[in-house]
Amino acid sequence: MFVQIKRMVVTEGNSDIIVERFGAKKDGPSLLEQQPGYIDKQILVKKVRRGDEEVLIMVRWESEEAWKNWEKSPEHIAGHKANAGKPKPDFIVESGQDVYYVKA
Fold first, then answer.
1. Could you list the pLDDT tens digit for every one of the 104 residues in the chain?
2. CB contact at 8 A, 101 and 4
3. Contacts of 53 (CB under 8 A, 6+ apart)
4. Contact 91, 52 (CB under 8 A)
5. Closest listed residue to residue 45, CA positions, set 21, 62, 26, 61
6. What is the pTM of this model?
7. How many Å apart are CA 34 and CA 46, to the nearest integer?
8. Pfam families given for it (predicted)?
């Protein structure tokens, strides 16, 4: 199994925007959920009293190959091209992504 984790830090009160963007269910499964090798997705919001909020989007894949196929798929690339050149929203403090092999 292979896991992709996106980490986003946003200003106070804005984690719901990220949750909606990455977790919203529309009519039927998303393009991501239809990808061969996709297992599931979890969205975690760090418990904080005040200040910046942290959101993790964890996507589990059957294999690294399945994840790579999604990353280079026309659908995934088109989604990124649609936002190319647009400034990131002001409420995003930082973002990043890491990938992991599940060993146990």
1. 999 999 999 999 999 999 998 886 667 788 899 999 999 999 999 998 899 999 999 999 999 999 999 999 998 898 888 777 888 899 999 999 999 999 99
2. no
3. 9, 10, 11, 12, 13, 14, 15, 45, 46
4. no
5. 21
6. 0.88
7. 28
8. ABM
